[in-house]
Design goal:
InterPro entries: B30.2/SPRY (IPR001870), B30.2/SPRY_sf (IPR043136), Butyrophylin_SPRY (IPR003879), ConA-like_dom_sf (IPR013320), PRY (IPR006574), SPRY_dom (IPR003877), TRIM/RBCC (IPR050143). This is Nuclear factor 7, ovary-like. The protein is α+β, with helices and mostly antiparallel strands. It is 23% helix and 27% strand. Strands 1, 2, 3, 5, 9, 10, 11 and 13 form an 8-stranded mixed β-sheet that branches. Strands 4-12-6-7-8 form a 5-stranded antiparallel β-sheet, with no helix packed on it. The longest helix is centred in the first third of the chain and has 24 residues. 23% of the residues are buried.
Length: 253
């Protein structure tokens, strides 16, 4: 401890000696000290330089996969539309949830009024709001349900008679699934890498496009291109669930 104190004392003497020499040899520096200090204070009061907007690189946009980059450009231009089911259009064997966002194929027929809007030939139900312009999208949770068809239909679609097929020819633009097979509504098989748990439906009315995606990675499934001349409504058809864990299909909020 004594040696440490002696060392500290020695350093103090050395510092004092240096200060004395500075006073003798650097009078100009010492005389301008206040001016130097003032300039330093002014400089320290200046704000830090700001980064220019966009100076940092968004790595995901530059290095992400193609579908991600395309979706990044599209998502701000597409209106995510809340869709509710219209109970006045529901087939009598279909059961809708109280909040009108899910539907299942029931085990008994319901006594419902045969109003003009109601679908009476097939197990279908329409959305409550139609679209006649713009871009709109929504997602449907399908899980492992074995039989479903989702998409859009024209307002004047035949709701009472037989329709040869759920295809654009008859005013229905859809994606269909039956026991592991996906088709585009024209009977053409659509290949998917894995069974999607959700389906994103995307409408660009003005460009005449209805697109279907697996929203997990925004993987395209199929696209319909046509010329739309009347209001389009979300369209859902569902069969019996059988032993599947998913008994109903649900519009995601």
């Amino acid at each position: 401890m004594k040696s440490i104190q002696e060392h500290i004392s020695s350093l103090s003497h050395s510092i004092s000696a240096v200060e004395e020499e500075l006073q003798k040899l650097n009078v100009p520096f010492l005389s301008s000290y206040k001016a130097t200090q003032s300039r330093a204070r002014v400089q320290s009061s200046l704000s830090d330089p700001q980064l220019l907007s966009g100076a940092l690189t968004d790595v995901a946009k530059h290095l992400g996969n193609l579908s991600f980059r395309v979706w990044e450009k599209m998502k701000d231009q597409v209106h995510f539309s809340p869709v509710l089911l219209d109970p006045n259009t529901a087939y009598s064997w279909l059961s809708l949830s109280d909040d009108l966002i899910s539907v299942r194929h029931g085990d008994k027929v319901q006594q419902l009024p045969d109003n003009p809007e109601r679908c009476t030939q097939y197990a279908t139900v329409l959305g409550s709001e139609g679209f006649s312009s713009g871009k709109h999208s929504w997602e449907v949770e399908v899980g492992d349900h074995p039989h479903w068809i989702i998409g859009l239909t024209k307002e004047s679609v035949d709701r009472k008679g037989e329709i040869p097929g759920a295809s654009p020819k008859y005013g229905i633009w859809c994606l269909a699934h039956s026991s592991g097979r996906y088709t585009n509504g024209d009977g053409e098989t659509v290949r998917v890498e894995k069974n999607p748990q959700r389906i994103r439906v995307q409408l660009d009315y003005d460009r005449g496009e209805v697109c279907f995606y697996d929203p997990e990675h925004m993987t395209p499934i199929c696209t319909h291109r046509d010329t739309f001349t009347e209001k389009l409504f979300p369209w859902f058809s569902i069969g019996e669930a059988g032993d599947a864990k998913t008994a109903d299909i649900k519009i995601c909020e």
